[in-house]
Amino acid sequence: MTDVLDDLAAEYRRLDAVLAALSPAQWSAPSGADGWTVADVVLHLAQSEEAIGSPAIGDTGSFLPSTATTVDGAMADLVAAERGMAPDALLARWRKAASATPDTLRSYPPGTRLAWVRTSLSPRTLATTRLAEHWAHAQDITVPLGIDYPDTDRLRHIAWLAHRTLPYAFSVAGRPDAAVHCDLTAPDGTRWTFGDPAAPNRITGPAADFCRVGARRLTPEQTALTAEGPDAAEALRLVRNYAA
């Protein structure tokens, strides 16, 4: 794969081009994130990007408030506390934070672990989660507004993350881990495979669908994905591209 930090920067640039072209009415329009406007989504992205540069992620704790009981609730509270910024100021704030992230993550020495949400991650895995989150929230912005946002081969990082974190998803649900092989079709028609081909569970179909299921933007039933094996359907139900 292309280096994830380079691809993260590319995803930022693509979203930047979309945001720079929005009208004031579009900034105020409802997004695909329940209860949030487009401006709220960008504020959330700015806040979470700013956390990348916070000393807190180098500690054993988390950048989330100590009083947080759920990740979604904490993020909603953070957005509510700063809601109302003008679009130009909000875009500048997100740009400043996002532009610093790739070099910040690249600066950490090998073996570094960074506290993030409910776990600790390597800098490059954290970069992958940032790519996944920006891509998912780009859907929340562009789909309701009817703006074209074609899928790219950067989805490979997101599909890898979704497959890699399946054990975590099973554990959160109180389920024993199950080996899953994914055979996915990339946007350009090539194949991406993850996991042991001999695994008893197999998920096949478009990588874009797999990533959208992991982002909870589609249900498995709304996709062309197929699940074969005793735990494959459950894996599709539980898969996620984010921590919660």
Automatic annotation (TrEMBL):
Task: State the Gene3D superfamilies in the record.
Answer: dinb family like domain (1.20.120.450)
Specify the Mycothiol-dependent maleylpyruvate isomerase metal-binding domain's residue ranges. Answer: 8-141
Against SUPFAM superfamilies, the record matches this protein to:
DinB/YfiT-like putative metalloenzymes
Q: Name one GO molecular function term.
A: isomerase activity
Q: Which domain of life is it from?
A: Bacteria
Q: Recite the UniProt keywords alphabetically.
A: Isomerase
Please identify the protein, giving its name as recorded: Maleylpyruvate isomerase family mycothiol-dependent enzyme
Species whose genome carries this gene = Actinomadura nitritigenes
